[in-house]
Amino acid sequence: MRHTLAREFNNLIERGRDRQLRLAVTGLSRAGKTAFLTSLVYQLRHAGLEARLDLLPAAREGRLMGAQRIAQKDLGVPRFPYDQAMASLDGTPPQWPEPTRGISELRLIIRYRPERSGLFGGLGSSNATLTLDLFDYPGEWLLDLPLLEHDYFSWSQRQQRTLSPERRAMASDWLDAVAALDPAAEADEAELATIAEHYAESLRAAREAGFADLQPGRFLLPGDLEGAPVLQFFPLPGLDKDDRKHLDALPKESVYHTLARRFAYYQQHVVKPFYREHFRRFDRQIVLVDVLGALNAGPERFEDLSRALATLMQSFDYGQRSLLSRLFAPRIDRLAIAATKADHVTPEQHPNLVTLLEALLAEPIKDLRFADVPVKALSLASIRATQAHEVEHKGTRTQALRGVTLNGEETLIFPGEVPTRLPRHDFWARQGFAFNAFRPLSQDVRGEGLPHIRMDAALDWLLGDKLT
Ligand code: GDP
Predict the structure, then answer these.
(1) Which of 149, 280, 371, 415 is 20 to 30 Å from 91 at the Cα level?
(2) Any ligand 1 atom below 6 A from CB of 171
(3) Residue 9: what pLDDT?
(4) Is the distance from the beta carbon of residue 88 to the nearest atom of ligand 1 less than 6 Å?
(5) Domains parsed from the chain with CATH numbers
(6) 36 Cα–ligand 1 center, Å
């Protein structure tokens, strides 16, 4: 009895406290962050009304009463453009929201009825609130964490190693310009700015072509640093370990030392502040991965995604000796990893999609579990754009998807199977994978609410325990 009483008191105190959760959404460009955050806000705001959230107990039990947007605390961070995103989805024809390009934030107050009525009768039926601070930031920024382990010389050498023949071809302007540069010469601001722009262009071209393992991340998504000198550096190719002594001895005004200073400045004033001021303060995070998009793009891109994810996930390695723990002592207590756009494949393929995601992230997931960070992998569609149908195909009943392509054509497709293991040679030779992008469903087709697949499961993992 004493025990129960103590627990009830604790519950009381807990509920009375200002309860708050800082939840961050990340993923590489086009992974689906904007769609996810838009849907998340929509589903919570419409909980108890149009939103279908059966996998979230608070909603299923009718205890979730909805959410309201309120002014955020951090005035230095742009607000997530939720209204614009909804306007695009509700347009004629409906369109995908314009993706965000830097960090953005939105604050919601969630109102719910706690689960148990408890000893103090009536208490359970009174309302409680949870303040949810949502953040959205580019996964590309996390690709910069390993850069903190380097100095300019070793970073240049590492970049050299990532230049595959295809990437070299995309970087030919930069490679030509940098070949003519003498590291010992006195630095010319304008010249360095031009070469840096060639370098940024080569990264953008690589990203357009589907590559993801690209550094520095801010060159792709500069946010408010567009055009700033801190982004005007690049690696020096062709360095040999014997060059270090000679380069170190060059005058301070030399090209080499100027680039090295900018690199160090980038580490101190761009990479570290993001971890210190934002990342370290997130309680929970979800990492979105466009696994199907990478399958669609072929073997080289798929491998590149795998490498980029391995780098990105280092930011979640909380092992005692990890770079991250040494520098920033993060405090995240839960992580979700989600394969997005699951509506591109038929429902019976969804378990395969999760298995493939787990295979893609096998090492990082193992490390996270070892470091005792609870992690869950799932597949979802933030905004479902297709409808699953069973059709008669060549005499057998087959699962198919119906949707409208981006240029407005109605299509019925058989997307094929998702492999459960990392695809090998024969997969690409035999099957490959082909899907079109779909337009979001129009309001008259989708009816009430914003259709999704397992947004409620993601919500349950990310905040369900706070709504009990
Ligand atoms: P971000 O760059 O990570 O913010 O990615 P977005 O949220 O802008 O998503 C990129 C594109 O992926 C969108 O324009 C859509 O074409 C597609 N997409 C995102 N989420 C979904 C989804 O749930 N279903 C489908 N079919 N497509 C999606």
Answers:
(1) 415
(2) no
(3) 60
(4) no
(5) 2-137+278-385+447-467 (3.40.50.300), 146-274 (no CATH)
(6) 8
Cβ 34 under 6 angstroms from ligand 1? yes
Q: What is the pLDDT of residue 295?
A: 87
User: How confident is the model at residue 245, as a pLDDT?
Assistant: 94
CA of 96 to the centre of ligand 1 (A): 7
- How many angstroms does the Cα of residue 59 sit away from the middle of ligand 1? 25
SS (H, E, C) the chain: CHHHHHHHHHHHHHHHCCCEEEEEEEECCCCCHHHHHHHHHHHHHCCCCCCCCCCCHHHHCCCEEEEEEECCCCCCCCECCHHHHHHHHCCCCCCCCCCCCCCEEEEEEEEECCCCCCCCCCHHHCCEEEEEEEEEEEHHHHHHHHHHHCCHHHHHHHHHHHCCHHHHHHCHHHHHHHHCCCCCCECCHHHHHHHHHHHHHHHHHHHHCCCCCCCCHHHCCCHHHCCCHHHCCCCCCCCCCCHHHHHHCCCCCEHHHHHHHHHHHHHHHHHHHHHHHCHHHCCEEEEEECHHHHHHHCHHHHHHHHHHHHHHHHHHCCCCCCHHHHHHCCCCCEEEEEECCHHHCCHHHHHHHHHHHHHHCHHHHHHHHHCCCCEEEEECECCCCCEEEEEEECCEEEEEEEEEECCCCEEEECCCCCCCCCCCHHHHHHCCCCCCCECCCCHHHHCCCCCCECHHHHHHHHHHHHHC
pLDDT at residue 121 in the model = 46
- Work out which ligand 1 atom sits closest to the CA atom of 385: 26
Ligand 1 atom nearest to 403, measured from its CA: 26
pLDDT digits (tens, 9 = 90+) for 213-253: 889 988 988 777 877 888 899 999 989 989 999 999 999 99
Low-confidence stretches of the chain (pLDDT beneath 70): 1-18, 117-125, 319-321, 431-434
